[in-house]
Amino acid sequence: MSSFTSPLIVSPMPDGRTWKLFKAFKYHVGNRYSKNIISVPAGFVTDFASIPWFFWAVLPYWGRYGKASVIHDWLYQTHQVSRRMADLIFYEAMLVSGTQKWKAKIMHLAVRIFSGFTWKE
C-alpha cells in the first residue's frame, strides 16, 4: 500500500482559512517502495479540503483526509499529472490515511464533478 513519508507540519495563515507547510511533505503513489513520489515543498499554502461550509458537520475541511487534501491541492496547482490521475491519487491517499471508504468515495466523486474549474485556473 502507498504511504506518506513524513509528518505534515503546517501553521495557519492570517486569513484564517489557509495553512502553510513548514516542512516538505512526500507521498509514495501505489506502494511505499514506489519511485513515483509526490513532493510538496515547504512554503506551499493549502486550504485542505475545499468543502462548502454547509457540509462541514458531516465532512469538515480537515479530517483523516487532511494529508490527502494537501497532495491533491499540490497536484491541482502544478499539473504534474492529469486531473483524473490527481483525483485517483487523492482517493488512494484518503484510504491510506484511514478515511472511511464511503467518505473517500463521496469526496472523490465531488472533486470529479465540481473541481474542473479549479483545474483550469
Task: Set down the secondary structure blueprint.
Layout: E1 3-4, E2 10-12, E3 19-21, E4 25-28, E5 37-40, E6 45-46, H1 66-78, H2 83-96, H3 101-114, H4 116-120
Antiparallel strand pairs: 1-4, 2-3, 3-6, 4-5
Helix pairs in contact: 1-2, 2-3
Characterization of this structure:
By secondary structure, this protein is an alpha+beta fold. It has one domain (3-120). Helix content is 38%, strand content 15%. It has 4 helices and 6 strands, in the order ββββββαααα. The chain has helices at 66-78, 83-96, 101-114, 116-120; strands at 3-4, 10-12, 19-21, 25-28, 37-40, 45-46. The strands form 2 sheets. Strands 1-4-5 form a 3-stranded antiparallel sheet, with helices on one face. Helix 1 packs antiparallel against helix 2 and helix 2 packs antiparallel against helix 3. It is globular and about 30 Å long. It starts with a strand and ends with a helix.
